[in-house]
Fold this protein.
Amino acid sequence: MKNKNIQTEIDASYLYQKLSDNETDETIKYVFRQMSEREKGHAEAFAKKEKISLQNLMIPSWRAKTLNTIGKIFGYDFVLGTLMETEKSISNAIVIAKQNHKKQITGRETNHVKVLRSILETQTSTAGKYLSKFESRHRSVGGNAIRAAVLGGNDGLVSNFSLVMGIAGATAGGEGVLLAGLAGMLAGALSMALGEWISVKSSQELYENQMQIEMEELEANPEGERRELVLIYIAKGIPEPQAQQMANEIMLDKTHAHEVLVKEELGINAEELKGSAIEAAIYSFILFSIGAIIPVLPFMFLTETKAIIVSIISSAIGLFLIGSAITLFTGKNVWYSGFRQVLFGLAAAAVTFGIGKLIGVSIAG
């Protein structure tokens, strides 16, 4: 039976190969293919160490297959980001384990991340594009679409489930539950949408202002900005003569120089400004509403105790599915994550139901 470490390496090898198969840039295709081979080698080494048969070893898990399916539908940027997060998590775990056991940290613990970054950084035509995908994940307007879908649905379900159970406790599942549930869904979805719109718009305006200031500085003092670039590159470990040459070449094109300065000095990726605040708000509204409608639906067709029971069951199923979906990002056990989500959701609903029951009895008395 394969242990978790071996399965992680197998999944990474499988997903890197899928990235390679779906990549049009030959340089990046080569990088992904090499990473796939590295992960396969690690899996085989782990298997040999654990004395596990290599026969039928390279079988990806359901999680890896699901990620690949998502990549086919929504694009492989999601898979790319998830892999980089996995590499970072593994590296951090190794470092922490060595620190806990007071073992020497050699620097090789982060080799996977370093190798991937270093290969891409040598390709000037593709480095910026792909490194930004790795390092600016979820800082952009909508973040990752799949992650947003899961979290948005979870917020809607948990908050409205708790609200519905609170009203049901106070009214014994009367007609007021349906009205309160629909009102809660609408209010929550509108609040989420407005919050997302404000967040996106304010971030865009802040970045645009910083970029405008940088352009003014570039026009007013190009030599000063050139020297700043030199210092940035030297700080990255590039020899001063090479840093001078790189800065001089960049400054030949003011537009390109502005892009580089914005990225290197301010840490802003121009791609982050392309998202639509309205689009983000609409997605947020829809995703929250999808989760929030689940506990309300039974009260459209049933009343009192039957409606409460069906609402609890349907909400529990929804919570389990959301908990399972979260494992796409965390890599944890599906059953553990699913039932943990159910437990927390039911606990929150039980508290509000109990409070509602007390309020209902108090009013009736």
User: Anything to note?
Assistant: The CA atoms of residues 47 and 54 lie 7 Å apart. Residues 145-202+276-364 form one domain.
